Amino acid sequence: MNCISALLLALCILCLCSCLGGGALILMRLTGNFVIKGRRKGNLAHRGKDNAERKNKASFMRRGLFSEGTDKAQKLNGADALIIGELIMIGLAVTAHVAAVFTRQSFSDCVTLFSGFLGVLLLPAAVLLIIQEISHAKSQGIFQKNKADSSLPDKAKKADIVERIFAGIFAVLVVSQLIFILGNAGVFTQGDMTVETVASFLETDGIYLVNPMTGQAYTAGMPTRIKILCLPSLYGIFCSWSGLEPDIVVSAAVPVLILISSYAAFSCIGRSLFTENRRNRYCFLIVTALLMWAGSYLYGMDGFQLLYCGYRGVTIRNLVLIPYLVSLCLRKRWKSTVLCILAEAGIVWTFYGLGACILTAAGLFAAGRQTLNDKQKKK
Question: pLDDT at position 225, please?
């Protein structure tokens, strides 16, 4: 029963994040952040380009958020919506947590503040998604009428069957990992106090008032850098929403959420590397899933972190934020990498390698600039 409750909670959080991220992507696209960079003035060629971009923007709602765009290599998709929604949720958690800590509010006030922020953002996001779906549904009839004969040649049908086989293999690997996590076979809490910290928040209705190991109030205080880490508060909020015990949320629901988010991030890398070849994307994801199983034997390996310690900030940083940041860099969406960098600052302690995201982004940016300079020299 606990496994089902944890799975349902994880699915609900995934839906919330997807809604948030989808609304954010629609809003950014409609305001021109991804297509129109401002109205150009000048020659007729520029004006023609503006007209084409305005048509693209106007038809966006009819085509749908996750339809194929003109530049597939840089296109944002459903996996992007999920992870961007999670980044937004982390940002809201940091805001509510820091506000409660430094104004000495109770934990219930933190839950109320976070829920209020989330509701304010969810409402317009849901409205945008509903409007888009209605527009997309109306336009589907027109597109179907103009669609050519969809019969596929034998070679294309064989390729489709192979892709489905690869997709099935990947699905089996992911489901086996979900069963492993939900079966509580892989919880590793040695040297970690996340469950105890969340429980202390719920029991005392305060944030970092009581040492979870001693049950006594902190006498020497806590470093500010640790105080602003928001994951215990976020997990406590999930407990308040669902009524589940902290150990179920921390050891089952959150690791399931992070597992799915991790493969969503790696799928973004696969789409960036293999834009036109879905078979190669599935192969990439299958190899990634096998490496996670293979790396689960030793503490510190990515596979171990994902399958045994999915609730930790370091795991989220290494297996969600950094892969997604790499995919953004491959798609040359440099400004969006700031979201990953800020999220890392709110979930990872300084001594656990804070700054890995910004170093990764800087390294990839420098490599991209060097590659561009080399191409210009050859010309």
Answer: 76
Report which secondary-structure segment, H or E, holds 264.
Answer: helix 254-273
What is d(CA 249, CA 254) in angstroms, rounded to the nearest whole number?
6
Distance (Å, rounded) from C-alpha 230 to C-alpha 346?
Answer: 6
Per-residue pLDDT reduced to its tens digit, 2-24: 888 999 999 999 999 999 999 99
Whether 23 and 61 have beta carbons less than 8 Å apart is answered as no
For 360, left (φ over 0), alpha (ψ -120 to 50), or beta? Answer: alpha
Tens digits of residue pLDDT in 94-133: 999 999 998 989 999 999 999 999 999 999 999 988 888 8
User: Cβ(330)–Cβ(363) under 8 Å?
Assistant: no
Give residue for tokens 């990872």. 348
Domain boundaries, the chain: 2-37+61-137+158-371
Q: How far is CA 97 from the centre of its chain?
A: 20
* Cα–Cα dist 263/260, whole Å: 5
User: Which pLDDT score is estimated for 230?
Assistant: 92
β-sheet bridge partners, residue 217: 210
* E strand residue ranges, 193-261: none
Token pair 């069963």: residue: 179
Pull the structure tokens for residue 238: 């999930």
The pair phi, psi for residue 214, each rounded to 5°, is -110, -25
pLDDT tens digits, one per residue of 353-375? 678 899 999 999 888 887 777 67
| Residue 233, H or E segment | helix 231-242
